[in-house]
Amino acid sequence: MSQKKTILVTGGAGYIGRCTAYVLAQNGYQPVLIDNFSTGRRAMVGELTCFDLDLTDRKSTLEAFRKSQDVVGVIHLAAKALVGESVEKPYEYLRNNFLSTLNVAEAAAMSGVCVLHSSSCAVYGVPEKLPILETTPRSPVSPYGAAKAMAEDVLAQFVRHKGLRALNLRYFNPAGSMGNGQYGELHEPETHLIPNVVGAFLGGKPIRVFGSDFPTPDGTCVRDYIHIEDLVGAHLVALEKLLAPGSLKVESLNIGSGKGVSVKEVLEAASSVLGGKVPHEMAPRRAGDPAELVADIAQAKAILGWEPKKSLNDMIRDHHQWVTGRAKKLL
Ligand SMILES: NC(=O)c1ccc[n+]([C@@H]2O[C@H](COP(=O)([O-])OP(=O)(O)OC[C@H]3O[C@@H](n4cnc5c(N)ncnc54)[C@H](O)[C@@H]3O)[C@@H](O)[C@H]2O)c1
Predict the structure, then answer these.
(1) Are 17 and 40 in contact (CB under 8 A)?
(2) Please, what is the Cα angle at 248 between 223 and 105, to 5 degrees?
(3) Which residue has a Cα nearest atom 13 of ligand 1?
(4) Single pTM value for the model
(5) Domain limits of the chain?
(6) Which CATH class is domain 193-224+258-330?
(7) What is the pLDDT of residue 124?
């Protein structure tokens, strides 16, 4: 019989889920994936056990939890995760992301296991003050952000009424790859800046820079990027805290680098790391894009004893390594 603690990783065939499972396995846990492969890739499962199921189905979700031996926690990453698409398809996003979380919360509460939930800075919408604190009022703009806020509320109800132990990690902008380029980001369509910048450098379409007249130092949007290794590292310490009952007194933590970087700065960093120009063209602002979104990560640092270590250059270099290596075989 296995002595390892089992962690269910929902959305484990996706970008962040598979990177998380890789690190869990390296740290003595037994990751077991749950995925419906709507955006995740079967080739990413590898040697791991995976339940092929849709978490919006209550019966099969409860059954997967019942069948999992030695399960002590769930890292709930499964979601539809494209902000722009959510505006086109609000019903699909609200249904999928809300129902999945409702079923995961119920199954976790019934099994007596804790939940680490992938939330997002999208719950804040367009905040009035920067940097963004966890106490900044939630005011999501997109259906994606609204569904994340609803998922947080679902978990809070199970915490209050069913004794569930849960924590929301509100990610800012994860990027880069892990395990020497073995696990990385491969979305279709890709909407994130760093993969698209690397793609443009490698001969893809020139990247469009939306807006050069924002009230930021160089006029382009400022965001907070965090290396996937740092993001996943935060999960590991958060999980250990959750597994020790009573040691966590907060419901949500921001997980970012705490530093703002503009689109222009990303382009410049990419040119220097990759050794060439990144083709790009200026375009008008997109409706609803805030000028600046930067996390205050003081709480995560203090509570988790965690600190991001990797740089923007590492994110670009590591994404390039993945996309020119293993990812090519998956396309
Ligand atoms: N990547 C980012 O920039 C970012 C930022 C903030 C928050 N997040 C959150 O992190 C999580 C992971 O994001 P990602 O970038 O790895 O996305 P991804 O699309 O690569 O992974 C999501 C996974 O969830 C699975 N899934 C979706 N609905 C499901 C369902 N009903 N049942 C079972 N499986 C289902 C998909 O097949 C996929 O494997 C998501 O919850 C996302 O909202 C991501």
Answers:
(1) yes
(2) 80
(3) 16
(4) 0.97
(5) 5-174+225-255, 193-224+258-330
(6) alpha beta
(7) 97
